Amino acid sequence: MAYDRTTLGWKAFQDLASAVAAEVLRRPVQTFLGSRDGGRDAAFLGTWDGGTNGTLKSTIQVKYIGGAGARLTLSKLSGELDKVEALVTDGLAEDYVVITNAGVTGVSEAAICKAFEAKGVKTCRVYHGDWIIEQIKASAQLRMLVPRVYGIGDLSHIVTAHAQEQAKAILAEMGDDLACFVPTSSYHAAVKALDDYRFLILLGDPASGKSTIAALLALGSLDQGCAGAVRISSPEQLHLWQPTERQVLWVDDAFGANQFDVARINRWNTEFPTLRAAIANVTRIVFTSRNYIWSAVRPFLRTRDFPLLSESQVVIDVHKLTSTERAQILYNHVRRKQPRSMRIRLKPHLSYVAESVRFLPETARRLGDPFFTSKIPITRDRLVQLVEHPVEFLIEVLEGLDGASRAAIALIFLHPEGGVPSPIRSSYALDIVVRLTGTPPADISAALVTLEDSLTRRVNDDDGIRWVFRHPTITDAFATIVGHSPELVELYVGGARVERLVREVVCAPKDIAGAHIRVPTTLYPAVRLRLADLELDETLRSFLGERCDETFIRAFVEERPEVLEWVMTVTVSSLSSGAEMLVAALHRSGLLPEERRRAIVARLTENAIDDGETSIFENRRLRPLFTADEVISLEAGYEQEWLHDLSETFDTFRGRFSSTDEHGLYTEFKENIERAERHFGNIERASGFQRLLEQIEDHLNSLPNEEEDYPTLSSLPSRQGEDMRASGPLDVFLDIDEG
């Protein structure tokens, strides 16, 4: 196993030193001391167990020296030597640790330690570059905490050939993203959550870096002994995964790429017991999702079948960055690819960009890409606008492309999630793009290459080499352009795969989060024609119920009367989310037969009164099926059965129901009572509800804990907000225009 430490930049070395202090030296970092060199020579404080003397304070001095063959001598620490007496006086240097990337001779080490101990330090220690490399080799956990080191090693430590190949593929796909990655507080929280619980959900806005963190967690899991990594985008691909093997399962956009996908939720609900068993078998699972999709999904997830979904520790919002973290990410991207002339122009404005709370890692990548910066004026207002409105900026870039480039973007947009085969070949999507844009296939192929690594990229998978978008936000931006162009909407309706069409378009005058393409009524017949042979499954039911207006639904039912046949046979117990949407839409459109409406209402009422099921009180889809008199009857019946004496409700429930999954049974009972409190609660009942919920909680706590005892991480660098700041964002950019 070999590592080339000379390729590790000063910031990555600081992160490594911080992790070494916590993991190896057992001195978790508490706070940084100020520096005046842009942060390259960081000093920070750590704590350590002093035995009978209690917790003691360490000063850890990180000394980065550029260039191959560099050596650390006492003269290069003269500035730090001048400060050490004050640190000793303040009780901050019981011991003094120097960590350097450079080499240190035995003579220099002795001189350094003697000089610092003469200033009052009780013990001085010096750790040189070769020692650091040995720690990296010895600790997979250390490598995972500072993933930049994966880019400077040979991966020979990964045991199986299959895992090695997968690790290499992840590194190849990440490209420059790894070199620019900053291990933020969110990343360290994700590492800890995955280590503690073996399950994790990474949340964030589009372009916030979820997939990058997921890729590094998968790479780290391979490093720590997982036999393989399986990356999928929907539960339909679970056949690619072996839950009985020690693997890492990485699910990108688990609940939908741009919008809440009802069909996926129902499938995940059925698969949760399998996931739970796999985690007990030391499999690791990482989900990613956009924030607004997660918010829409949560009420429909069966958390009783997968309790980890209720653990706040496994849900990591990767969008929460400190200003220093934002500055470091921006520094890495701009420094890596921009020529010096552009870095000089950008430098006065970068600190303002990094201060924006709407800053995203993908924005930093675009500011580091000459393709993007060549298209905008370099002014403070324009750069801040780019950060505040990233999708609008991307739309502006796409609209300014030449005809061949826009045709190339349209071709990828029309293709399924797998991308466009390279080299491009004749297909229905290509024929449509050529016909509507007038661009020859050869020009489209050339444009794909021209746009590579700015808007497009090539990926290599089992199906061969394919062209995909450089980032999913390009799909969002181009979809917005399509939505404002009748010609392009027609192109999309006619050319997109039908499975994608029902997930992304809206045939109604309404706004849906993540849906950019509203189909005009003149194209309704074309959409219905595309759906003519599509099975009435969960996806189509949710499309009709959630995304279509009365005009569309009436015409669709007239053309496909089996919809009414379906609604006459569906039972309440089998009503999935998509089925509820369609039943509600049929009712709104006056197409739900009265006989069927009464039967559904009767069954829902029976469930509430006999079984204590209270979800109907908060079900915005099915509640409108009830007439005013039926609502009164429902509420009166439930109150009489379950709320007439709250002191007896627990015993009533325990006398009626039992289950082999008692924890799941009483968790569901608690959820039902909480809904009842929200609906029926008042001052007179407040104490009764409180005592009842305490009874249920006490009972749940008394049950045997079926969950595994998860291992806990020994220690992590303490990176809490701005307390970790070595310098302000402005200082980080001091040397960005050098070299």
UniProtKB/TrEMBL annotation:
Q: What is this protein called?
A: Novel STAND NTPase 3 domain-containing protein
Q: Record's Pfam families?
A: nSTAND3
Alphabetized InterPro entries for the sequence: nSTAND3, P-loop_NTPase
Q: Which organism is it from?
A: Sphingomonas aurantiaca
What range(s) does the Novel STAND NTPase domain occupy? Answer: 181-335
Instruction: Provide the residue span(s) of the region labelled Disordered.
Output: 702-739
